[in-house]
Design goal:
The complex is a heterodimer.
Chain A: H1 11-19, H2 25-43, E1 46-49, H3 51-66, E2 77-81, H4 108-115, E3 119-124, H5 158-165, E4 171-176, H6 182-188, E5 191-194, E6 214-219, H7 222-232, E7 262-266, H8 276-291, E8 295-299, H9 307-322, H10 341-352, H11 355-368, H12 374-394, E9 400-404, H13 420-424, H14 431-436, E10 440-448, E11 451-458, H15 464-477
Parallel strand pairs in A: 2-3, 7-8, 7-9
Antiparallel strand pairs in A: 1-3, 4-6, 5-6, 5-10, 9-11, 10-11
Helix pairs in contact in A: 2-3, 7-15, 9-11, 9-12
Chain B: H1 5-14, H2 24-38, H3 73-78, E1 83-84, E2 87-88
Classes of the chains: A alpha/beta, B mainly alpha.
């Protein structure tokens, strides 16, 4: 086979190729490592590259396969977002605060992939503590969007999205608190899935906003996301918010017809803030699904406008509590020569956190402070229930809900300037699903000025299979997900 | 409500984050912008709505009171800024 385009394979292709003996895990791992060495200085999608350990894992995987003892991901190379703790491998969360942090344990998601035989190429770049929608807040510098290196890849999982889009990994783990899987997937032209809250263990996943954070997969296709979710999903007694519920085989329903599917189209997701080119691509995608037998139903999610304000109370409030652990005492950064304990706390946190993280901690502290709790935090939690109820009502009559993932395609570095609110509105269509705890996906559905557009699919609780089925069927009759950025050679059809 | 420099100084003290003099005006402005955004919540009619803390309204699960972890103190302290005799060292608290 032609080694030069080994990286055009999906995860499903890689599993089939390894099974058939077309190539070994060592070969494909070496191929990806070489690409990362050659190309990632342009994109900055990796914070840490695991060259030696990846090759050792690949050798072990080839040996297991030869012994006829290959688990599901045996020898498949992937990358982990640098928010998942990896035993013995630095886990920075994109922050100076954790630049020297080498966890003594694996996150459950990391453990699951290790048990499944995956090879971990490295740890991907991200907005600091997952706070951002452009990857510009990373301590390790911004990630560049492979479709246009003057533009952002989205965030916070911009490193994972770029690694997949630039074919520097066939799939990567990511996390989504307000859109951090779906928005970068949209901006980078790949497929990403945020599961139902409680579906994937948060143990060992560095906490940002605990009632919203959820890990999920990023890859080129819905089928690959299904394969990855099969490894990631499941009850974990170590995560007190994990839900004890059977995990289906997410690949099982991929091939079902969409005949009779009812797609809710919320009018609030096609408002004045939406880029006209993005709208056209999304409307064309909906028409494509109609051709496959789906029916579009106009719906309303009347409390949509409350989502962004409610999120910017709840997420900072939870972050201010979660990030209080970073104080220079037990691990991570400590300032030089503290003169007393207070000075150690103040300077460690003042020097170790970047501006956006500090801003959110201060906003959170404000919303939780005496006299303001009811007006902000309690009010936001009430708004959250109204937002959830909108979705519950809608799912009485529709099977899935669809609209744009992000209001516009990738924007240039610095475009959102110093106004944090402009950046926050990037997640205007994704945040509500986190508040409601629903699963959501983004699937490539077109281009505006050669920049990818994402179609968002929102599913009912624990119905990831249905979303994946819809996304997979869409990908059978469209090829948006097969496009590659200029300069990324993926060869022709085999 | 308006946020002033003194409010930010108080919050910074509560959150134990040093904000340097050069950036405090900018920090005050950007936090005022964020709070103006979240103030849109005040217009919502939430009379009688039960606050929602967990999307599935799940409650904290209790586990059996059993030993499940072995002692990892050495591993944890290996990555600490300063330790001595199994203890974490921080600057002196009491003179």
């Amino acid at each position: 086979m032609n080694n030069s385009i080994m990286h055009n394979k999906t995860i499903a292709d890689i599993i089939a190729g390894l099974d058939a003996g077309e190539f070994t895990s060592v070969e494909i791992t070496q191929h990806y490592l070489k690409r990362i060495q050659q190309l990632d200085s342009t994109y900055n999608s990796y914070i840490t590259i695991n060259e030696a350990s990846a090759l050792a894992q690949a050798e072990a995987a080839d040996k297991r396969r030869a012994e006829g003892n290959a688990p599901a991901f045996c020898g498949v190379p992937i990358a982990h977002k640098d928010i998942f703790c990896t035993n013995g491998v630095r886990t920075s969360c994109g922050s100076k605060m954790l630049d020297n942090f080498v966890p003594p344990y694996d996150a459950t998601v990391v453990e699951n992939f290790a048990r499944a035989g995956a090879v971990i190429l490295g740890k991907t770049n991200m907005d600091e503590f997952a706070m951002g929608s452009s990857n510009e807040t990373s301590f390790y510098g911004p990630v560049k969007n492979p479709w246009d290196t003057n533009t952002v890849p989205g965030g916070s999982s911009g490193g994972s999205a770029t690694a997949v889009a630039a074919h520097l990994a066939p799939g990567a783990t990511a996390t989504d608190t307000g859109g951090s899987i779906r928005q970068p997937a949209a901006l980078c032209g790949i497929t990403g899935l945020k599961p139902t809250y409680g579906r994937v263990s948060r143990w060992g996943m560095i906490a940002f906003a605990s009632s919203l954070d959820q890990g999920g997969p990023m890859a080129h296709t819905a089928e690959d996301c299904a394969l990855m979710l099969n490894i990631m999903a499941g009850f974990d007694p170590k995560d007190s918010t994990s839900i004890d519920r059977d995990v289906p085989d997410y690949t099982e329903n991929l091939n079902q017809s969409l005949e009779g599917l009812k797609v809710g189209v919320p009018k609030e997701y096609f408002d004045e803030g939406l880029n006209p080119g993005t709208e056209k691509a999304v409307r064309d995608a909906l028409a494509e699904l109609e051709k496959q037998g789906a029916t579009l139903v106009s719906i309303s999610l009347p409390h949509s406008k409350l989502a962004v304000p409610a999120y910017y109370v709840i997420a900072p409030a939870e972050a201010s509590a979660n990030l209080s652990r970073f104080d220079g005492s037990r691990y991570g950064y400590r300032c030089e020569d503290p003169k007393d304990l207070r000075d150690m706390y103040m300077r460690t946190r003042g020097e170790g956190f970047g501006d956006e993280v500090k801003r959110r901690i201060l906003v959170g502290a404000y919303c939780l402070s005496a006299g303001y709790y009811d007006a902000y935090y309690r009010k936001a939690q009430q708004a959250r229930r109204l937002i959830k109820q909108d979705f519950v009502d809608a799912f009485e009559t529709v099977d899935v809900i669809m609209g744009p993932t992000a209001p516009s395609p990738a924007f240039e570095f610095g475009a959102k300037g110093k106004d944090p609110v402009a950046m926050y509105l990037e997640d205007i269509y994704t945040i509500a699903t986190n508040l409601a705890g629903l699963p959501g996906m983004s699937v490539p559905c077109g281009f505006v000025d050669n920049k990818p557009v994402g179609l968002q699919i929102i599913g009912n609780y624990f119905d990831e299979s249905q979303m994946l089925n819809v996304a997979h069927q869409f990908q059978q009759t469209t090829d948006w997900h097969k496009q590659a950025p200029e300069g990324i050679e993926i060869g022709g059809a085999e | 409500m308006t946020i002033e420099r003194a409010d930010i100084e108080k919050l910074a003290e509560l959150a134990r984050i040093e904000i340097n003099e050069a950036t405090i005006a900018e920090t005050t402005q950007s936090i005022a912008d964020v709070l103006a955004l979240v103030d849109q919540l005040q217009a919502a009619d939430t009379e009688g709505v039960e606050p929602m803390a967990h999307p599935s309204d799940a409650v904290q699960r209790l586990r059996a009171d059993e030993v499940t972890e072995s002692n990892h103190r050495d591993d944890f302290q290996a990555i600490a800024p300063a330790t001595e005799a199994g203890l974490y060292l921080v600057p002196k608290v009491i003179d």
